[in-house]
Automatic annotation (TrEMBL):
Pfam families: SLD5_C. Coiled coil: none annotated. One of its GO terms (biological process) is DNA-templated DNA replication. Residues 193-245 form the DNA replication complex GINS protein SLD5 C-terminal domain. GO terms for cellular component: GINS complex. Residues 59-79 are annotated as: Disordered. It comes from Testicularia cyperi. Residues 59-68 have a biased composition (Low complexity). This is DNA replication complex GINS protein SLD5 C-terminal domain-containing protein. PANTHER family: DNA REPLICATION COMPLEX GINS PROTEIN SLD5 (PTHR21206:SF0), SLD5 PROTEIN (PTHR21206). Signal peptide: none annotated.
Length: 245
């Protein structure tokens, strides 16, 4: 049977992904399938919007011509009724309503995608060196994100080297981790995501028991909410069985 996430629409899947990405300490694998579906829907909506705009413009011109002709006929005593004018106005109002509904839905989707990319952009800037040096991290990115982070870190490292690092002693001019130091030590020059950060998590499916770092266990049942270390439920975030809130 499909999971709870798979049974949701593309928009709902991307909205839940945004919730997780905002709260996650690291970049999450980008959901290509619902994103592609959503982009296709946006293209279809834009086509509908363009079609409705053309129809609305055509109807408006036709209505203006009809109104002018009706007014002339009425004033000349050749016919033309108020009912005909009311019908034209009703058609215009229906087209206007359809136009607004499609436009609102399109803008809603654009708003969601902008915020998803913005939340990921913050992490790309913050962990550019770590991401650009890790093939596993690069595999999580869209092609445009991958190109951006590699170019960004190349420019930043060149700037640091020419403006600061070349004037420092050799032992202080290395942007990489210093050998023999702990990952969180003061000599760590590569900022990395804190996978032990605490997060709130809501279960979309029954995930069963998980082992916690303190040798305790927790049972994650559907619709339950927990406060756990991110590392403990990272694999469930990747499989989209839980969402961070």
């Amino acid at each position: 049977p499909p999971t709870t996430m798979e049974s949701k629409s593309a928009f709902e899947q991307m909205a839940l992904f945004w919730s997780s990405q905002r709260s996650a300490p690291e970049l999450l694998p980008f959901p290509i399938s619902p994103f592609a579906t959503l982009v296709d829907q946006m293209h279809q909506q834009q086509s509908i919007l363009d079609s409705l705009l053309v129809t609305s413009t055509s109807n408006s011109r036709s209505h203006n011509s009809t109104t002018s002709a009706a007014a002339y006929s009425k004033n000349s005593g050749y016919g033309g009724t108020d009912a005909d004018e009311g019908l034209e106005v009703e058609v215009d109002e229906d087209e206007h309503l359809r136009l607004n509904l499609v436009q609102i839905d399109l803008e809603r989707t654009k708003w969601l995608l902008r915020h998803i990319l913005r939340s990921r952009s913050d992490l790309l800037h913050k962990y550019a060196q770590f991401i650009s040096s890790s093939p596993a991290e690069l595999d999580k990115l869209l092609p445009s994100e991958r190109q951006f982070v590699l170019s960004f870190w190349s420019l930043k490292s060149d700037h640091l080297a020419t403006s600061i690092l070349q004037f420092l002693p050799d032992q202080l001019g290395n942007l990489e981790n210093q050998p023999g130091t702990s990952e969180r030590g003061s000599s760590n020059m590569v900022p990395e995501p804190d996978l032990d950060a605490p997060v709130f998590v809501r279960c979309l499916d029954d995930c069963g028991p998980i082992r916690l770092p303190d040798e305790e266990s927790a049972t994650l049942s559907r619709d339950s909410i927990h406060f756990l270390r991110y590392r403990s439920i990272r694999h469930l975030v990747y499989t989209r069985q839980v969402v961070l809130v």
